[in-house]
């Protein structure tokens, strides 16, 4: 794969220089070469809820026809509708890249039940526990709260 990686770097992607393992069957058919098989790789990124690093295995199925020059398929289809052989060579990179990118989750999660981050302190809710909370006081009542807190320290003042 290319040196810049595949996917959305920083969110979820095959890291730069990452390996993609191909298991392919190439068959000669009337209109060209039919490529079928799988591509497997490891993707890395971060959870969209808690921002923890994550890693996952991705395996995608591939099926692509590479049309022979001057075949009926070559003559009756637009340039971007079907892949073509160029000087008896097949360029698998665009097909593999597209298949992997389409298989990546739009919202990667470290686990389906990830709780995310606390909106007040930014801590990871899974680490903070179920008792975690922050007492918030309406700013309009803050002066009254301060007065009551002062009376708790000195109960004789009323």
Automatic annotation (TrEMBL):
<dbReference type="Pfam" id="PF02620">
    <property type="entry name" value="YceD"/>
</dbReference>
<protein>
    <recommendedName>
        <fullName>Metal-binding protein</fullName>
    </recommendedName>
</protein>
<dbReference type="InterPro" id="IPR003772">
    <property type="entry name" value="YceD"/>
</dbReference>
């Amino acid at each position: 794969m290319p040196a810049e990686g595949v996917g959305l770097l920083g969110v979820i992607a095959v890291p730069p220089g990452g390996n993609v393992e191909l298991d392919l069957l190439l068959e000669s058919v009337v209109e060209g070469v039919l490529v079928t098989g799988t591509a497997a790789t490891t993707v890395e990124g971060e959870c969209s809820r808690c921002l923890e690093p994550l890693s996952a295995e991705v395996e995608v199925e591939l099926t692509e026809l590479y049309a022979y020059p001057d075949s009926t398929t070559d003559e009756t289809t637009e340039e971007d509708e079907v892949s073509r052989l160029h000087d008896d060579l097949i360029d698998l990179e665009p097909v593999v890249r597209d298949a992997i990118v389409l298989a990546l989750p739009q919202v990667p999660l470290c686990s389906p039940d990830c709780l995310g981050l606390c909106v007040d302190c930014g801590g990871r809710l899974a680490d903070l526990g179920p008792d975690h909370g922050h007492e918030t006081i309406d700013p309009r009542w803050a002066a009254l709260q301060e007065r009551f807190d002062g009376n708790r320290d000195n109960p004789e003042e009323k």
